[in-house]
């Protein structure tokens, strides 16, 4: 029986609202080692590299072995357990963000089939290992980790396309266009009507596709994106709070401070000291 070990990393704070890594690692489990039943607040993908175990979701159980992956979705009641005689070794990554749902929808996982057997596991294993190897508290560590996460998801998306070439999801295209518009125009005085017009849909339809693909409304996404950019400026520039407010599309400093505090829990004047304590 292989020697047990666990190497893991947990990220306690991030400003990356598009896609951020919550945790990652690799583990050789003890016999019958289990997690759950419980729920996660993020997406979680495991790749089994050796041994066997069982994954249970929505009352269904799957027996898994080398080359199998299983997906845990946010707020989904799951449990998983290593085999008593041949316990599994797996690599994993936990992530979430505005882009997460759209990316996961393009992988081989579905609600009916939350497990997937990959034909070639080595590239996926290497991508997961690279995520872990790039771990660290600085922004350049997070950028490298997210970069390897994109490569990992890209490999899964490619395998899904090769197995079942699907027509692009129109609602996802609307969301992608809206997000690009926000990224290029967030510093201006734009409204949700402006965003909807830019992608060619009604305001109500934009709301529906955002809730379906992103899990939040367009106005919440726009606000969170602006506040995320404000956090970057607070950390990396010497601009005043009033200058930062205007730079991210708020033309009333006091309103900016109220929204910032509601989103981050502290006013912008105390933001840097708050993250230094975490």
From TrEMBL:
Pfam families xref list: AraC_binding, HTH_18
UniProt cross-references to PROSITE patterns, sorted A to Z: HTH_ARAC_FAMILY_1, HTH_ARAC_FAMILY_2, PROKAR_LIPOPROTEIN
GO molecular function term, any single one: sequence-specific DNA binding
Classification via SUPFAM superfamilies: Homeodomain-like (SSF46689), Regulatory protein AraC (SSF51215)
Domain (HTH araC/xylS-type) ranges: 176-274
Keywords annotated in UniProt: DNA-binding, Transcription, Transcription regulation
Name assigned to this protein: AraC-like DNA-binding protein
Species this protein is from: Allofournierella massiliensis
């Amino acid at each position: 029986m292989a020697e047990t070990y666990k190497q893991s990393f947990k990220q306690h704070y991030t400003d990356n609202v598009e896609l951020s890594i919550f945790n990652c690692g690799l583990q050789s489990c003890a016999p019958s080692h289990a997690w759950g039943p419980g729920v996660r607040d993020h997406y979680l993908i495991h790749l089994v590299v050796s041994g066997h175990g069982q994954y249970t979701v929505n009352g269904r159980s799957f027996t898994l072995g080398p080359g199998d992956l299983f997906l845990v979705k946010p707020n989904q009641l799951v449990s998983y357990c290593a085999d008593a005689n041949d316990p599994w070794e797996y690599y994993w990554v936990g992530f979430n963000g505005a882009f997460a749902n759209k990316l996961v929808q393009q992988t081989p996982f579905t609600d009916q089939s939350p497990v997937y057997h990959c034909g070639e596991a080595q590239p996926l294993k290497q991508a997961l290992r690279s995520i872990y190897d790039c771990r660290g508290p600085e922004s350049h560590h997070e950028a490298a980790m997210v970069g390897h996460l994109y490569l990992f998801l890209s490999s899964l998306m490619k395998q899904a396309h090769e197995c079942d070439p699907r027509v692009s999801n129109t609602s996802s295209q609307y969301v992608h266009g809206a997000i690009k518009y926000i990224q290029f125009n967030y510093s201006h005085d734009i409204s949700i009507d402006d965003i909807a017009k830019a992608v060619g849909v009604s305001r109500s339809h934009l709301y529906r596709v955002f809730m379906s693909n992103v899990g939040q409304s367009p106005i919440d996404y726009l606000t969170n994106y602006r506040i995320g950019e404000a956090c970057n400026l607070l950390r990396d520039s010497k601009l005043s709070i009033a200058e930062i407010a205007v730079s991210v599309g708020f033309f009333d400093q006091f309103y900016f401070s109220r929204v910032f505090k509601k989103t981050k829990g502290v006013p912008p004047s105390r933001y840097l000291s708050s993250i230094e304590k975490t």
